[in-house]
Write a structure and sequence with these properties.
2 copies of one chain form a homodimer. By secondary structure, chain A is α/β, with parallel strands linked by helices. Chain A folds into 2 domains: about 5-55, Helicase, Ruva Protein, domain 3, CATH 1.10.8; about 65-170, Dna Topoisomerase Vi A Subunit, Chain: A, domain 2 (3-Layer(aba) Sandwich). The first copy, chain A, is about 40% helix and about 10% strand. Chain A has a 4-stranded parallel β-sheet.
Chain lengths: ~200, ~200
């Protein structure tokens, strides 16, 4: 595309570096900003700058936080010995929204993925293993997505924890509540049969 | 959604005011920025600020431009008496990309749409009518989309031009070059038969 304006071109170049935003979408967004009062652009850019400059990672769980220790880790009514290992803040939010989990989290910041150049050293695996070795954790729940990368990451951490007598588990995979069996994929249905639960405990949730 | 960070929440609130960007998409974009070096956020916000503060509308055609008079209007090899009326810069770019148009443009900045609260006074219709009355234009080509709003806007401008002896036309609607007739919608096919062109002139393009 050929733009009549250098300013426009620069803005589009930057916008289209965001994931899932192509030149056309960027143009739509930028034209919207141009139709709005200058204040909206000011507020947007200030909010982004503020976030990027002042955001911290919680020193305990590495979740995104405004403070040194995040709200979850500093909440004394939560069980610090139970730790759920997740990929990023979106998973924390998803689990928090269930209202069923009262333990802590450990945010890895990604999954091991050689294709994307992400190795174990770029993730927060080392601090997790250290916390375990210091005896601060009793049980780890793995809650990474069940993809090749997720399984690799799970297995890598599991190997690192060998020799410690920590209890580990993964979240249950199975048919979604309310789903019809006939439309479920074979792998999920197979797992949900293998990992069946006693009838009484299925009534609790 | 419940966010653990006020900074994050503010950034998402601002991002999700952009059209087509919901809270989830905003979160994905913001998390991407957080994973990148601070410079990327700096460059993005600076480019947007620069654009919003320094961009001008061409004083002749109201297209987005870095200068008082846009590149097209200041190009003396173009025919200033032929003016194509379009909605916004995207249409200018689309027509420029064909390489087949050597006239000027007039950018309305939108279409008359009472549902969205856009009336004729918010568009650049008045300057267009004035240019016509001053005898600066010989022919106007209407190139708005053929929707209810586009047709309303065309008709409104057409009525404003009554009494002047200006030549007006609209771009041809018909079957796309290379399309199969059997898959065309009835309205388009109907129009392309009504507005058929002499065989010789169809061979030129």
């Amino acid at each position: 595309m050929d733009f009549s304006s250098k300013l426009l071109e620069q803005a589009l170049d930057e916008m289209s570096q965001l994931p899932g935003i192509g030149k056309r979408t960027a143009l739509r967004l930028v034209l919207h900003l141009l139709k709005q009062p200058t204040e909206q652009t000011d507020q947007l850019t200030k909010a982004l700058q503020n976030l990027r400059k002042n955001i911290k990672l919680c020193r305990n769980c590495f979740n995104i936080s405004d403070t040194e220790l995040c709200e979850i880790c500093s909440n004394t009514s939560r069980v610090s010995e139970l730790v759920c290992v997740v990929e990023d803040i979106r998973d924390v939010m998803a689990i928090e929204n269930t209202g069923q989990y009262r333990g802590h989290y450990h945010v890895l910041g990604g999954k091991i993925s050689p294709m994307d150049g992400i190795g174990p050293s770029q993730l927060t695996i080392k601090p997790l293993v250290e916390k375990v070795k210091q005896g601060k954790i009793e049980e780890i729940i793995f809650a990474l997505s069940s993809t090749l990368e997720g399984d690799t990451t799970n297995f890598y951490i599991f190997k690192q924890l060998e020799g410690t007598n920590i209890k580990t588990s993964t979240i249950a995979r199975g048919i979604s509540v309310g789903d019809e069996l006939e439309y479920a994929d074979e792998v999920t249905l197979g797992r949900s049969i293998t990992n069946r639960v006693p009838f009484e405990s299925s009534m609790k949730g």
